[in-house]
Amino acid sequence: MTDQPAQAPAPYPAYAVPSEPWGPLANWGTRVAASLLDALLSMTGLVLYAVGIPLIVAAAPDSSFDSTTGTYASTEPANTGLMVLGIAFVGLGAVVIIAIQLWNRVFRMGRTGQSIGKKVMGIRLVEEHTGRPMGAGMCFVREIAHTLDQFFYLGYLWPLWDPKRQTFADKILSTVVVEVPKS
User: How many structural domains does the chain have?
Assistant: First the structure.
């Protein structure tokens, strides 16, 4: 036997990529938590839905089935004003959900690399080659590219075994999600 010092274990598991210029890669669980927080934020528009749907139902005309003629007979007319108000609440709810998504996941994340969820979880989306945020236009394209991730949710699971922890959308647009250095 020789008197050689023991080798230190490798600092990274065999499947991980060491820290690149953009910083350590975010883990899958943190990314999922950030996405859930973003979804929860955009779902505030559902409050308007919760008000609008009962208004529409309450305003619908009452009818009963006449078994002798085989037809439905209206027993009470529709409340048109209430129905219009319910439809307005539902429509406004949809607009609010879309507006929050666009502001948070396109404009905000495009400018800073962080949606609200990513900021809370301490992660950032950056271009793989520059380490900088990708801009609102490309963030919009990335959101569209996430439709590929939705096939059997395989694309969302891909970061579990991918060396750069990228979804299909990340691969297409050459982006990575990294941890934000703690200050």
Answer: 1
Q: Is residue 156 part of a domain?
A: yes
Tell me if 10 is assigned to some domain: no
What would the pLDDT profile of 16-35 be if each residue is shown by its tens digit?
Answer: 444 567 789 999 999 999 99
And the tokens for 136?
């609102």
Q: Identify whether 22 is part of a domain.
A: no
130, burial (CB in 10 Å: exposed 0-12, middle 13-18, buried 19+): exposed
Q: Which residues of the chain have pLDDT under 50?
A: 10-18
Give the predicted TM-score (pTM) of the model: 0.77
Q: DSSP characters for 143-182?
A: HHHHHHHTGGGHHHHGGGT-TT---HHHHHHTEEEEEPPP
Q: What distance, in Å, lies between the first and last C-alpha atoms of the chain?
A: 47
Q: Could you tell me if residue 21 is inside a domain? A: no
174: left (phi over 0), alpha (psi -120 to 50) or beta: left
Question: Collapsing DSSP states into helix, strand and coil, what is residue 19?
Answer: coil
Cβ atoms of residues 127 and 151 within 8 Å: no
Nearest to 143 by CA among 125, 160, 159: 125
Query: 80-101 vs 28-42: helix axis angle to the nearest 10?
Result: 150
In terms of residue numbers, what domain contains 130?
Answer: 28-60+76-179
CB-facing half-sphere around the CA of 152: CA atoms within 13 A: 2
